[in-house]
Design brief:
Distance between the termini: 58 Å
Oligomer: single chain
Number of domains: 1
CATH architecture: Alpha-Beta Complex
Strand content: 15-25%
Shape: globular
CATH class: Alpha Beta
Helix content: 40-55%
CATH topology: Aspartate Aminotransferase, domain 1
């Protein structure tokens, strides 16, 4: 008998569904990340993009977050934002436009909120120039 490759599960339809699918310990951490983003950018529309919770203003992505086996990550952290938050990012893993944080590390809520705020300003500034 030939074994067929498994189909990838369909991406969740909402951030609530995304969080519900995670183990409890991860869900607690990711709920804090979500709250920090929503508190910093309350006007952002919440959706799923690329299989990740995404926050958009005017249809443009501000930030994304994702759960992984050993860490969670925040995506959309541009070089400008990294420079503005350099001290707070020290000690965290930063690669390209992504910050990775282990589940065993306390969620840097203020940093997540600051990153979301800076990204929202950048996205809004670009939209105003158009």
């Amino acid at each position: 008998m030939v074994e067929r490759p498994r189909k990838k599960p369909a991406p969740p339809g909402s951030v609530d569904a995304y969080l519900a699918a995670r183990p409890t310990a991860e869900r607690v951490v990711l709920t804090q990340v979500r709250a920090a983003i929503r508190g910093a950018v309350p006007a952002a529309a919440e959706s799923i993009s690329y299989g990740m919770p995404t926050y958009k203003l005017g249809g443009k992505a501000v930030v994304f977050f994702a759960a992984w086996k050993r860490h969670w990550s925040l995506h959309g952290v541009t070089a400008e934002v990294q420079a503005a938050c350099a001290k707070a990012l020290a000690g965290l893993v930063v690669e390209k436009d992504t910050v990775r944080v282990g589940y065993d590390v306390e969620v840097p809520v203020a940093l997540v909120a600051r990153i979301a705020t800076l990204r929202a300003r950048a996205v809004t500034a670009v939209a105003k120039r158009r």
